[in-house]
Amino acid sequence: MPSSGITAVDAAAKGMKLERYASGGALMLRRATSAKIVSASSHLLFRATVLATLALVFLFTLHYPSLLFRSFHLSAGGGGPGGAHSASHRSLLMSSSSTSASYGGAAWEKEMRQSARPSRDGGISVLVTGAAGFVGTHCSLALKARGDGVVGLDNFNSYYDPSLKRARQALLASRGVAVVDADINDGLLLEKLFDVAAFTHVLHLAAQAGVRYAMEAPQTYVASNVAGLVSVFEVAAKHADPQPAIVWASSSSVYGLNTDAPFSEDHRTDRPASLYAATKKAGEAIAHTYNHIYGLSITGLRFFTVYGPWGRPDMAYFFFARSIVAGEPITLFRAADGSDARRDFTYIDDVVKGCLGALDTAGKSTGSKSGKKSGPAPLRVYNLGNTSPVPVTRMVAILEKLLGKKANKRIVTMPSNGDVPFTHANVSHAAHDFGYRPTTSLEAGLRHFVDWFVQYYKLDIKIAKGARSAADKPAKKKKAAAAMSAAS
């Protein structure tokens, strides 16, 4: 009995152990199966994510190849027009570490230092971005002519014909100004330039221009006018030693839907009418931030419809001239109330004087690489205009007279594409602070433009005689003729 009782208990115990073992084994089996399922799902999700990423990269590369692939080189100075740079519109957005290694070496550094070295006592050393652009070329020539050091930077994108930019580059090279073929978003290159040359000033003119084009390529404006501006400020604030003073190109477009005339720097600028205007307004806010945090001396210049020789083909006066010569129709806009659009046309020589005046009166930056500031740095904004708005129809009439040919005009109501009915500059602040006074009438300025236009494009046109302003001196015309001859 006792032994049989012990056997029953043992058997019962063994049965319980077997039952627990069986249930535990089932639980372990379920857990193992779940782990395998989770692992398989994770692998499947990872593979799906990789495939999706590759697909997105492929599609992005297919539609926006210029944002991923780009090559740069240092211009030798002469640079003929056209070439590989004419083939495609190179993006303004790029990796800051992709191409800087292509610059450097003793010869390159020597060229940069030589171009940046002033030739006069007390001269300044200026990095000019957008140097092969319209305003950039004229400012670079003026700085070099008075004995300042100048190094240019331009990416030669094809927003308009790059061959015109290459011709400007050739003109600059003939005057001893080196222009680096690169992008302002290449931070490492900017750092290298500041390591090689101790720039006292930056004249930042590089930007994606044009009001209507922003409706077609909005990212380009953000990449250049916002990201590019930040790139310049970053290097100037955190790398350059000492920090340079910065003068940069804002725009009269920041006044947007403002109807108070003339436009004053004290007027509101919170109602931009285009993305281009919004990026310039954003630039002014960014400038305030870098001035406040890093002690950068920053001056913003609001340009009002700049025109003249070596101008931009996308500007109305330029493509109107081309259309008149070719016998093609031109489109003129009228405001909703039936009035003609009016612009404060400002001749390039007057704008150059304003840019140089802003550079000469810019206070020193007060920050350091450590982030410490020795005091508040200047933060300024100025209008640079002609102060005399003119109907666009009047501008066309002057071109018709100079070119000896009537335009085939088509007048339509101004669309809501970012254009504004009129612009009108109040320049009293610039006049007070650095003596800015525009002197060139629209008639005289357009005559200078047409002189250049006919010669540059080798047109068989006898330019009609027209009025000249008191500011048009023979010496100035000889210099302009010499400049045009060098470029042609």
UniProtKB/TrEMBL annotation:
Q: Where in the cell is it found?
A: Golgi apparatus, Golgi stack membrane
Signal peptide range in chain numbering: none
Q: Which GO terms describe its biological process?
A: galacturonate biosynthetic process
Q: Has UniProt tagged this entry with the keyword Transmembrane?
A: yes
Keywords, in A-Z order: Isomerase, Membrane, NAD, Transmembrane, Transmembrane helix
Name the enzyme group at the top EC level.
isomerase
**Which residue ranges does the record annotate as region Disordered?**
469-488
NAD-dependent epimerase/dehydratase domain ranges (all copies)? 126-361
Extract the Pfam families matched here. Answer: Epimerase
Q: What is its EC number?
A: 5.1.3.6
* Membrane keyword on record: yes
Please list the reactions this protein catalyses: UDP-alpha-D-glucuronate = UDP-alpha-D-galacturonate
**GO cellular component labels:** Golgi cisterna membrane
Bilayer topology term:
Multi-pass membrane protein
Q: What's one GO MF term for it?
A: UDP-glucuronate 4-epimerase activity
List the transmembrane segments. Answer: 44-64
Which protein family is it in? Belongs to the NAD(P)-dependent epimerase/dehydratase family.
This chain's protein is named UDP-glucuronate 4-epimerase
Q: What organism, scientifically named, is this protein from? A: Setaria italica
